[in-house]
Request: fold
Amino acid sequence: SGEEEALKGGTDLIFGANPVTECIRAGRRRVHEVFIVRGREGGRHDEIARLAETSGIPIRSVDPSWMASRFRDREDQGVAASADGFSYSDLQALLDERGHAGPPLAVALDQVQDPRNLGAIARSAVAFGATGMIIHKDRSAAVTPAAVKASAGIIEHLDVSMVTNLARALAAARDAGLSIVGLEGGAGASIYEVDLLVPAVLVGGGEDSGLRRLTREACDCLASIPIDGRCQSLNASTATAVALAEASRQRRRAAGPGDGR
Reply:
């Protein structure tokens, strides 16, 4: 829809209190202007206004109708910002990235098409210490304002690389020393049996089709998430979050007390 697509000149209209705040704080892309609905001053809105002012970003007071016409039923919370389009990271730079502690951990998504799933996965990736995310260019969600909103703005702090050939990107990750772990329901190995202490890429499939054949073949191993038989499957964002949480658990346990992560 129009409100989540780029505006004139390749700018995005970010909406929501957390997304606008994190976009400014991350400082990865230029924020041109912040919009706050008239009559919504105070509390969180004042905090955002102060943050924008400190960052030298112009603030415009707008009528509720201005915001409503752009976001309709979306939860804009009375605040938005125009910013440059999301800046994607170079794949090799992402693969060379090292976390604050422990071995690299990245997430790769094979044609996840819902921007809300993309945003939710990005939020989990940051929460559980992933160093980056790789997404497929074709038939996949990009980092639109809707994805930023779904991540509560946290995706602004994550290195995201968009690639035209995911199998080739996974091969590059393997060459960089990362183990490629595909998430697939029905796989013989459980995610709880996979060694995630090594540098790794967790590969999640699309909402309907899962991992494509070439992506599956590019993985070093496939792992499933054991679930109650009454539930047939988990959605893409939940499955990836579970795998990320398991990687974090293994790494925290190995680090022992006093790790602080």
In short: Confidence is low (pLDDT under 50) at residues 1-9. Residues 23 and 156 are 6 Å apart (CA to CA).
